[in-house]
Every structure is written in structure tokens, then in C-alpha cells.
Amino acid sequence: MKSSPISAIYSTAQRMQSSTSSLLSYFRLSLNFFSSSPSTFFLLHTISKNSPTPSSHPLKSLHILDSSFNPPTLAHLRIALSALKSTAEASKPQRLLLLLATQNADKAPKPAAFEQRLAMMTILAQNILNHYHNSTGTSQPNPADEEVAVDIGIIKKPYFHDKAIAIEQSGFYKDEKSGKQPQQ
Fold it and tell me: How far apart are CA 21 and CA 25, in angstroms?
């Protein structure tokens, strides 16, 4: 029996409750560092099924979900899953970047503080991976589990074309061997 997206989000939130204050502190410190740095893009956290660090394989596909995440919703979950599933066979390994702008073109940063949104984005990322891997319908380990990761990132740019340039210029997603950027 499959669990509903709401129950999965709720159970993840319960497991994380004990570490919520440390997560909020980490994001608060990271935001302070980022706001005083000259960087325009900063990757805070990577979540994957089998390892907390990015794969050493060249990245073929980068999906970017840029939102205020105030709060993350089931629509965010469905958009992310749709993007990952649409390129699952053709683009391995692939990454999803949940991107939060600290300067927004059309919204005030209310009501949730940025560190609270980042904590909620972390829960969303875990749920995205759980739903993505459970969609295969098997409980056996899947080699594709190593080929999908969700990143939590922040950016100072309010407009998407500027965000795309800042992400590319950061060099974070660049393949060290070929020097190529993944398809965005």
C-alpha cells in the first residue's frame, strides 16, 4: 500500500523534529555568511539516497526548481518528480536544484524566514527522493538511486536569466574532465 504525499511529508517532518533547531542554526549561519560574501550562488546541501556528497560521474542533466518555497507544496513535489521522471532514462546521472532567491523580483520575504524555508526545502528534497525511488514499485536497491541527487541552493539574483548565468559561472556543476556544463 502506497502512502500519500501528505503522510510521507508528515512522517519525514516528525523524524526531523529533533534536529530542526540544529538545521535552522546551520541555515541561519550559512545565510549570514552568504549575504556578506561576494558570491551570487551558494550550494548549501546535497541530499541523495546513498551518499551525502555529489556523484563523481559527469552530470548530464540539471533540473532547477526556482521558487519562494513559502511553503513548499505538493505542486513543488509533483513538478520535481515530473522533471526527474521525464529524463530518467536519457540523462543519468541527473540532479535537481531547489533554488531560493534571497532577493525576489516580485515578493517580500514574508511570512517564513529564509532559514525556515531552507529547512522545509530539505524535507521536500527528502520526500522527492523517496517518491522518486518508490515509484519503481520495488523494494530492491536500485542502481539509479546513486544517479539522482537533490541540491538546496541560494542565490542573490532575482531574475531567472541572471540566475542561470550565476549558476553556470559558479562552476559547481561543471564536469572537471570535459569542462562542460550539464544541460539546464
Answer: 6
